[in-house]
Amino acid sequence: MAAGVERLLVHTCCLLLLASACSVEPALEAPSRLQVLASQGAVPDGGEFLVSLTDFERGFEQFDFDLASSCSSERYVDRLFQIDREIGLAGPEFLSLMFRDPDDLANSFGIEWCDIQAAADAGFASGTYLVVETDPVDIADIVETEPVWSSQLRTESTDTGVLYDWGSDIDTQRISGVRPLGRGGQLHVSDNVVVRSAAPEAMDAFLDASAQRVSDIDGATEAIGYLERQGAFSIAVTNIADTPDLFDVLNKGDLDGFDGGLLRWDVLGLGARLDESGTQRLDVVVSHRSEADADENLARLRDLVATGTNPAETISWSEVYRIDSSEVVGTQVQMTLSNAIEDRPLMRVTLNWILARVSLFAVEL
Fold it and tell me: What is the pTM of this model?
């Protein structure tokens, strides 16, 4: 890595703020990569959100993958794919689209896979953030000279850096890993941040200082902090708690198997990790408005895992999850789950069920 390399954040929308301590007061602990992503990721105002944050370096450490001594794009992607297959990463889809052509990221944007430390999606239309170490000059050299898109590149100075804009028209003749629809999109580069977006509105949200960030959501920062302390390297935070009747309307599912449901909660956090023995764990935190609601939902969750079923797949929850620990702390339900019988990638299957409105955490009808 060249001298003077700066830590960058790449996302479809993001900003990394660095501050130096100038007083005699003890220095505050630096925020983690995921905390930085959460503080900068722009999310839609109101409505539903699903935020995913993954610290790749922490995941590689837990899987005992040594990439520091010998790293290539192909080896990095192979290890990342292995982790995703075994545990199920909480996004981002943007990166998974490039698994077939790992070199496309560097060829298009000057970003090497081996420099990526963490990634995040901050909503259904926000794109992808990456925490990386790279040189902004290297990025400029690539985007200004690469042969496929540079001819239509427009460059604009912003208050915090430079915006590279290839437009939003779709050209199916130029589809690639970083441009799966053949849309040029935007790239914003500042001294310590790179932002990638295929949708202009997502870039506008990033550049809007008044836009809501993940950390502005009540309960989100606390959930992320708890899950990181548990050791999670891949985290999802959401407020999707719809009842299975919506699933029935959208997908014509069979609700006969739906039994129970939770009281309405505010924020759900999921965290994937390996424990000291290498066993997959899924940590869960559910934030409520009152301790009474948290107490009631803990009782319901225990009962659902013991006796309930998934209405979409008519599978007993006891065949999927085993509760390793569970308690109420303040207004939070805190649980640790593991595989009950079959070895499933718990983060992925749980997120799929959340999006289908038939998860263990769906609220009552």
Answer: 0.86
87-106 in b/e form (b: 16+ CB < 10 A) is bbbbbbebbbbbeeebebbb
Specify the residue for token string 């593991």.
338
Examine residue 92 and say whether the peptide bond preceding it is cis (omega within 30 degrees of 0): yes
User: What Rg value do the Cα atoms of the chain yield, rounded?
Assistant: 21
Among residues 22, 8, 38, the alpha carbon closest in space to that of 228 is found at 38
The closest of 8, 108, 62 to 272, measured between CA atoms, is 62
Residues 6+ away with beta carbon under 8 Å from 112: 73, 105, 106, 134
pLDDT at 252: 47
Which pair of tokens denotes residue 141? 């050299």
- What is the b/e burial string over 249-270, where b = at least 16 CB atoms within 10 angstroms of the residue's CB? eeeebeeebbebbbbebbbbbb
Question: Is 125 exposed, middle or buried, given 0-12, 13-18 or 19+ CB atoms closer than 10 A?
Answer: middle
pLDDT digits (tens, 9 = 90+) for 209-218: 888 888 888 8
